[in-house]
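Q: Protein kinase domain-containing protein, please. Structure only.
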Amino acid sequence: MKGESFGLIVGISLGLVIGVVLALSALCCFMYHRKRSQIANSASRRTATLPIRENGADACTVMSDSTLGPDSPVKSSTNGRNLWLDGFSKKSNVISASGILEYPYRDLQKATSNFTTLIGQGAFGPVYKAQMSTGETVAVKVLATDSKQGEKEFQTEVMLLGRLHHRNLVNLVGYCAEKGQHMLIYVYMSKGSLASHLYSEKHEPLSWDLRVYIALDVARGLEYLHDGAVPPVIHRDIKSSNILLDQSMRARVTISFVPLEISSPFSLLNLCSFKLQVADFGLSREEMVNKHAANVRGTFGYLDPEYISTRTFTKKSDVYGFGVLLFELIAARNPQQGLMEYVELAAMNAEEKVGWEEIVDSRLDGRFDLLEVNEVAAFAYKCISRAPRKRPNMRDVVQVLARVVKVRHSRKRQKMSTSPSPRLPAVESSGEQTGNRSVRSEHHRRDNSMESIVED
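A: Structure for Protein kinase domain-containing protein:
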């Protein structure tokens, strides 16, 4: 009898324990699923309310691992492959972490007519124009075969460059690593470098309005690198030959990585062992020069004096280089041929925002807005301040230049609304019409696109 009672008690106890355990398990599962649904709802609300940044701090296009910017010729599809992959062989594939296409060597060989379409020669190797079977035109940079860069380092470089996408950067769209060759494929910029338009007699002088637009484009690209990229990137070689122009005269900054010493505790795919170095897209033969001291990296004329003394690049070093570029746009003088001495002489006679017109490119023949010239030049002078702390940041630069363009468009609209439409001449010189038609149409397209951008 005792044995039966003891067995009954044990059975009841075990049943109670099992019941409690099951009840607790059910409660935990309920709480877990409820929490997950709350998190999902919260995330969806945040996604619906947060604005998409399109350019730097105020409007930057930062590509995630699975999305592509509007300016990239590589279009995403739902299955992770790309719509213009159809013309490639089956060997083409995508680096999953960056979405960068791998181009077969034979496709590039065919697209460049066996690598005969040379458009530039840089320190890191030749650059070829490639007409792909898909109809896309790209630029192919073939890295020098004597490079010490291994396969792993090259893949890391592709990964890092693939993370930087912005409408004012020369975006990397693919790579090739076959037959002992390392190649980087970029968006093709049909109008070449800014330097060629400033100094080559083959090109018409850039209008003042277009020079300000170009400065704003470059500023937005640098702002993205400083404030939109994760982690932030310092360019370290801002110069006119590293600024390329597309068909509509929109400017983009070229970028490139090379392995250097570890300089930061921040690590992203071993980013600490990579610094942003000379962009060197191959459209300029200008070599990196060292006119002051050993181990100075950069281009003489654009170098921050603070960097020369400390050997440390900062974001303000890029601001200094951009200030030099602004004066280069204003005066069309080479920084390696006395531009800054010219600027300092003008600064002695100028008073804040008055008197800078004496350094304006003589080829403009007075066709510029005096107020704009003085405002842009005075701001450029702040960018090249000897004390880095007194220099603005790139976000400030974008705001100032955007305001200049916005005021310009407001004045134009006001003038158009108050003045009657001018009567067109009955006959126009055919020679002048032929020589200037393409320039006018490009500036008109650029003017319209910039007006929409400023109003965003």
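A: Brief note, in case it's useful. The chain has two domains: 83-187, 194-414+435-451.
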